[in-house]
Amino acid sequence: MVVLDNLIAEERILRLKKTGLNEYEARAYLSLVGLREATAREILEAGRIPQGRIYDVLRNLATKGYVEIQGGSPTYYRAVDPTDVIRSLGQEHTRMLGELMDTLKDLHVEAPPTYPVWVISNETAIANRVFALLKTVNRELIVYSNNPTFFRLFADELHRARKHCNLFIIVDDPKRFPFRGLEFRQANEEFLQIINDFTIDGVVYRSLFSMIIDGRESFDVMTINGKRMGIVTKLPIIHYIMRRWLSHIHLLDDTPA
After folding, report:
1. Fewer CB within 10 Å, N or C, the chain?
2. Residue 150 is part of which domain span?
3. For the chain, what is the radius of gyration of the CA atoms?
């Protein structure tokens, strides 16, 4: 008689439960894969399934396409080949995702107006926001970074952006940014004095990466007491003042964006 090994079975049971089976259904199918063909009693003994539940469990498995039933006295049950089960699950999952995509495409929600300034604290969301904004640039992109590791994430996208917009990249030290095909401008002392670490009411702010897109939106990535945050700003006056100041200290051309 096949009895499920406790360590291996628990891992496999958890995986099968993720496909929509319950505990006893997973145990029954695993037992039947090992037995190949068996009676209900053999399956319940191998999978440690309560006798009062075994027939309902096997009927559910047959309905879901995991088990074939061969009538007779006694009735025998055969496991559908796992490869066929997985293929069927994949096809069903793809179909469901397609239906979901069609549903979402047709969905329209009137969104309330957004605030001109808001904060993103999730690191994946911060990176995704940078990528999304880089795809919207039309005329001018101003970037500042003092962190080559974070900058590296977006180097390829910046390289593409420079082909269709005016790209200005300001860094604390160009030697620390070994990225070919990009032109880096050395930040001067006046700029660094303002942009470097600063403390307000005991909170330490450290800028990592900033950009202004077409003079209409900015995104600043910084750490606040060691926690990374992204700050979105849609205040035109802020972008205008920043650009004029950068032109004043000769880090940008003195031409309005």
Report:
1. N
2. 117-248
3. 30
